[in-house]
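queue> pop job 88
queue> type: inverse folding (structure -> sequence)
queue> payload:
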């Protein structure tokens, strides 16, 4: 993971477990109605893992994907120089892409004419290019796909990757999401829609999932990549298995271009399908990593779904209180955090949530991280367009 919480999975996990928000005033947004965001920490290395002399041609969104993939492959104990690249796949979600590049090149075209437009515009800006750059850096020659289901893109990538393994299309799949889209244009557009928090008087508290005070999300950036293999293959090479991606469920609301179904019917079906796909029952779910963007309607609908489908009261966390909303990368980041909760037996708190009982019948973890043995957990991801994706992750050591 590369997130505002830190450069690397360990740093991000530590920040999320401490429940310390990352939202801060953003000089690049000065003068905008919303002038704060969640940025990657200063000094974040976005060039590691890139081929020599290739970083110059890559957009930040591709660099983040390559860096996260490099870390993930090392963590999994693979050596790309010796693997069979034709049996390795790559699936990455990206919801918005490099808007800053389009913005800059459009200005060049308008002010200086066609000759000022960079020939690298399309190779840097197309939404599939993070996939292509990771494949180049790691010698991946199997299936490669870019998913775009808005804010569910990273979760969709993991679901597709699981399908590639189950169909024997490949033996290893890198899957995740990447997004570096904090730019005045999308921020202004989100603000005009009423989707962003406007709490300039309380920037660190602006992202407050499930709180009665929530008024919108905080724009963020980052990337996360996970390495997926069949369990038998991982065991045969003596690899550490962090968790099992046991089930996936996906639906579409067909309700509204941006607003969630008020009762969360599509999200509910995705949750039920994912649990069934994992051959579990609702009562088997111990923990929920909620999508919870801190919008009034979205959080309310999701809370209602959790209460209906999982009335036994599993613990609930919502990382966007710390990290903000990373759009197309969010589903992958939150899946990775769910894996770490299962592996460590620790549920991070929801930042900025002071009254977890206000109108919501959920066991929200607040204040400090809570120890918990987790056998099965769900990670929710929902996106504009009515996309709903739910992943079921289970313990690799559970009987």
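queue> result:
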């Amino acid at each position: 993971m590369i997130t505002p919480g830190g450069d690397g999975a360990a740093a991000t996990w530590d920040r999320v477990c401490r429940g310390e928000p990352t939202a801060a005033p953003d000089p690049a947004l000065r003068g905008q109605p919303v002038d704060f965001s969640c940025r990657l920490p200063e000094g974040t290395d976005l060039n590691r893992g890139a081929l020599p002399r290739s970083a110059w041609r890559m957009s930040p969104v591709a660099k983040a994907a390559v860096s996260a993939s490099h870390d993930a492959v090392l963590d999994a104990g693979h050596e790309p120089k010796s693997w069979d690249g034709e049996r390795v796949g790559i699936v990455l979600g990206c919801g918005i892409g490099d808007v800053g590049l389009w913005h800059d090149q459009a200005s060049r075209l308008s002010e200086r004419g066609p000759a000022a437009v960079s020939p690298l515009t399309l190779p840097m800006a197309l939404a599939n290019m993070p996939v292509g750059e990771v494949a180049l850096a790691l010698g991946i020659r199997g299936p490669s796909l870019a998913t775009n289901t808005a804010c569910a893109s990273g979760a969709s990538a993991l679901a597709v990757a699981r399908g590639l393994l189950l169909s024997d299309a490949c033996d290893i799949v890198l899957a995740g999401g990447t997004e570096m889209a904090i730019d005045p244009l999308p921020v202004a557009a989100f603000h005009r829609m009423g989707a962003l928090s406007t709490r300039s008087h309380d920037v660190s508290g602006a992202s407050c999932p499930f709180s009665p005070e929530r008024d919108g999300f905080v724009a963020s950036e980052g990337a996360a990549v996970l390495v997926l293999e069949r369990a038998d293959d991982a065991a045969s090479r003596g690899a550490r298995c962090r968790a099992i991606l046991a089930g996936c469920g996906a639906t579409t609301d067909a309700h509204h271009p941006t607003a969630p179904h008020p009762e969360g019917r599509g999200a509910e079906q995705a949750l039920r399908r994912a649990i069934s796909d994992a051959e579990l029952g609702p009562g088997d779910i111990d923990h929920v990593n909620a999508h919870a963007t801190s919008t009034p309607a979205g959080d309310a609908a999701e809370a209602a779904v959790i209460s209906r489908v999982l009335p036994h009261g599993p613990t609930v966390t919502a990382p966007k209180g710390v990290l903000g909303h990373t759009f197309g990368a969010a589903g992958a980041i939150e899946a990775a955090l769910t894996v770490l909760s299962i592996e460590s037996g620790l549920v991070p708190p929801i930042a900025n949530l002071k009254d977890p009982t206000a109108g919501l019948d959920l066991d929200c973890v607040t204040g400090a991280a809570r120890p918990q043995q987790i056998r099965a957990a769900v990670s929710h991801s929902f996106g504009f367009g009515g996309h709903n994706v739910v992943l079921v992750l289970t313990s690799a050591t559970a009987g």
